[in-house]
Amino acid sequence: MNDKFFKLPLEKQRRIINAAYKVFSENSYKKAPMSEIADESGISKALLFHYFTNKKELYMYLWMNAIEMTRKAVTEYKTLETDDFFEMLKRSLLSKCSLMRDYPHLYAFSLRAYYETAPEIHKSIQENFNDVSKASEMIVFEKIEISNFRKDIELKTMYDEIFYAVDGYMLKKYRSNCIIPDEIEKEIIVLIDFWKKVYTQEV
Amino acid sequence: MNDKFFKLPLEKQRRIINAAYKVFSENSYKKAPMSEIADESGISKALLFHYFTNKKELYMYLWMNAIEMTRKAVTEYKTLETDDFFEMLKRSLLSKCSLMRDYPHLYAFSLRAYYETAPEIHKSIQENFNDVSKASEMIVFEKIEISNFRKDIELKTMYDEIFYAVDGYMLKKYRSNCIIPDEIEKEIIVLIDFWKKVYTQEV
DNA sequence: TCCTTATTGACCGTAACGGTTAATGCAAGT
DNA sequence: ACTTGCATTAACCGTTACGGTCAATAAGGA
């Protein structure tokens, strides 16, 4: 990894990183070509290899960057500083929307990276991830105030269901190539309001 | 397309088709290699090309087969012969589970094929699909009895949300390489019961 | 002008691709 | 045992794509 990369204008850094996120989110590690990343970011392949010594290094940088940016966004939105489940959910998802404005394909990349099977990558990733994800689920269930929920539903099922839906929703957006943060933000809010009504309001 | 393919033992046909569904569901059309399909199904690449004259033909056969099999399964489960939304949903999803027993990756293939961008493929697919999908959504909303639902929720949002969740659920199963029809069937039923309770029962 | 740095076109060796073909194996019929 | 006919494949072909390198060029500042 060449330090000169960080001395580039920020916008150019973003262009390169986003091209990489895009290509790696659309293909498996093995079938994601460096040349495609270079083309997509408007620089030559040689220059890309000038900044990142090889493919794996670029990939691992993206992975670390994704974790770090996500963590930062979650913190900025004070995601964990509430005991209202739906408020927390909203902050969590809106923080990801804000991230999406700078890095449209980071979310899709993260979703895919965790299941990457290429042996060179696999190990380094999974270790790193289990910490983050498992921990966050536990924190949620420790912190939230559950007395507001309908008494007749299984909270774990609700939790799973909501995250299935979020992933399914994002999947559709990515597949149809429709990453418009403003629109997604609105639709996400509609969904959250819907969930809140359904899961708390006792008609 | 060589007629001899259909004279093969059914199990061998399935092995080939499933290998193809798998490889095409994991990669974009362009990056899905025929050699990988051959290896996965335990036959030589030459033989694969003996049955299917070229890659596109194989892909289009898979697509047509997916549509036909899905239609058949939906019919067998009498999916549309009820006006209860959740019963219809259950039949629809269980029919897909049964399909999954014979063709584990057909679902993932269909999900991806619709958004395939390779120009040779794109056109032939989309035409064919709009009929099926749009029509089915309309049929559902015409047929179902809506008086049982909670009055305070937006049915379209509910409908979308459910299908996001199903896709997200299946995505996770595929990504983690966990296609176990029995298990999926059970979990799907849990989800449907959950939805039914939440969306109809006025606590 | 010169020097330094940013950037690239062209290149390398290798591997993978879609698709073909000539040669095998192999079973049934004589 | 020999032949016929089909199922199956190893080996091959021409082309493209890949990760990665390097010498050459462009750009910018002193």
Structure explained in plain terms:
The structure is a homodimer of 203-residue chains. With 203 residues, chain A is mainly α. The first copy, chain A, has ten helices and no strands. Chain A has helices at 4-7, 10-26, 34-41, 45-51, 55-76, 85-102, 106-113, 119-143, 155-175, 181-200. The longest helix of chain A is centred in the middle third of the chain and has 25 residues, at 119-143. The radius of gyration of chain A is 19 Å and the shape is elongated. Chains A and B meet through α9 and α10 of A and α9 and α10 of B. The structure holds a DNA duplex (30 and 30 nucleotides).
Overall shape of chain A: it is elongated
Rg of chain A over CA atoms, rounded to whole Å, is 19 Å
Q: Please summarize the sheet with the most strands of chain A.
A: none
The structural class of chain A is mainly alpha
Mean pLDDT of chain A: 93
Separate helix tally of chain A? 10
Beta-strand content of chain A? under 5%
Measured as a percent range, the helix fraction of chain A is over 70%
Most residues in contact: chain pair: A-B, 37 and 37 residues
- Provide the succession of SSEs of chain A: HHHHHHHHHH
Q: Tell me the total number of β-strands of chain A.
A: 0
**Quaternary structure annotation:** homodimer
Unreliable segments of chain A (pLDDT under 50, ≥5 consecutive)?
none
Give the termini separation of chain A: 58 Å
Write the layout of secondary structure elements.
The structure is a homodimer of 203-residue chains.
Chain A: H1 4-7, H2 10-26, H3 34-41, H4 45-51, H5 55-76, H6 85-102, H7 106-113, H8 119-143, H9 155-175, H10 181-200
Helix pairs in contact in A: 2-3, 2-7, 5-6, 5-8, 6-10
Chain A binds a DNA duplex (30 and 30 nucleotides) through residues 4, 33-35, 43-47, 49-50, 53-55.
